Amino acid sequence: MTSVVAVEPKKNWKIPFFTIWTGQAVSLFGSQLVGFALIWWLTKTTGSATVLATASLVSLLPNVILGPLVGTLVDRWNRRLVMIFADSFIALATLALALLFWQGNVQFWYVYALMFVRSVAGGFHYSAMQASTSLMVPKEHLARVQGMNQMLNGGLNIISAPLGALLLEVLPLQGILGIDVITALIAITPLLFLMVPQPPRAQAAVGAPLKTSVWAEMRQGLRYAFSWPGLVIIGIMATLINFLLTPAFSLMPILVIKHFNGQALQLAWMESAWGVGVMAGGFLLSVWGGFKRRMYTSFVGVFGIGITSLVIGLLPASAFPWAVGVMFFSGFTNPIANGPLFAALQASVDPEMQGRIFTLIGSFASAMSPIGLIVAGPVADHLGVQTWFLIGGVVTLLMALSMFMVPAVVHFEEGHPQKKKDSSPQAILPVVPEASQD
Q1: Global pTM?
Q2: In this structure, are residues 312 and 363 in contact, taking their beta carbons and an 8 Å threshold?
Q3: 90-117, pLDDT tens digit by residue?
Q4: Cα atoms in the Cβ-side hemisphere of radius 13 Å centred on 274
Q5: Distance (Å, rounded) from C-alpha 308 to C-alpha 423?
Q6: Per the CATH hierarchy, to which homologous superfamily does domain 221-419 belong?
Q7: What is the pLDDT of residues 64-73, one digit of tens each?
């Protein structure tokens, strides 16, 4: 027999959670500045599209390949310590590169190395923070917190690039890297003094923790995910949207130049409108919280994303001002779709499984982005970029409408279907004890 005791957030959760959240927000701001500065340095130093594409892959692939393993380790380890060590590792690697820039001894592959380290450590940090949120925040407030996360990301998208460009005019690159080290220390400091609840661990009949290997727990996470129809459908939906819409919005510069006959200023207007929309949508969600059934709120957001993508694909070349407005609405619907979905996952997935589930969905969804770019490029070259927006918009729209009629997704928040048979999470997916291998 095994047993798991649920962990409920404390009533006075706001001060500890938002203290940690604020530190993480400051660190994310520093990371955005560094990301912009490094990409700009690679662009000026090499002028190579291949180098920039490689940099994107170095940042993307670690989480695609290592995601399931990272999630398993996060579920095994102390999540507060995971965040501390992840931030510390990123800060040390960034400091090392700053010293190399200060000495004038930098090769572009050093930048690749830092991007790789930041990607791997960032995967650990993101998974630990997302999985810890459900143990710190009451379920009824999860959607509002996700709205704040979306609003934060939208605001950073607006200010990080222009501020990064301004800082590059007044600081050497090592100075900007130094800012990121300081913001990482700000994020680490609250974690040294505040407790982060841990998910319950399976207990044997005698009360001792079950000893299982990393690989056994990874397999357990996969069985847990694939035995939950609603979760599988949500994962497929997220993967398909990433396959269709990430390439579409990546091709926005081509749309602005070739269809709207615009230049960099027009592209900036489009991207800024989207960022402002994300902030507005995130603010609305943080105040409103969404419908009582979170999945309905998410479906409405996905519907809005599909409509805006379709409209962008249909707009004539003379309708650029309308395109800016549509981009605002596209950004507005983004947190309405994503925020409640993340909140539903945090509220419904067993806490001891969340690290594995978040990274598993993220790995599959992220893997589709480069594949989508490979397919979308030739299609856009032959049929026009608007064609890909039309395809993505129609498919996303149909998915949103169909989800209202899929009971497994509509009732996703009721939890794993086998919980109706047994309330013990471990009875759903029993773990066979193995000798620990880590």
Answers
A1: 0.72
A2: no
A3: 999 899 988 988 888 778 788 888 888 8
A4: 17
A5: 42
A6: MFS general substrate transporter like domains (1.20.1250.20)
A7: 788 788 888 8
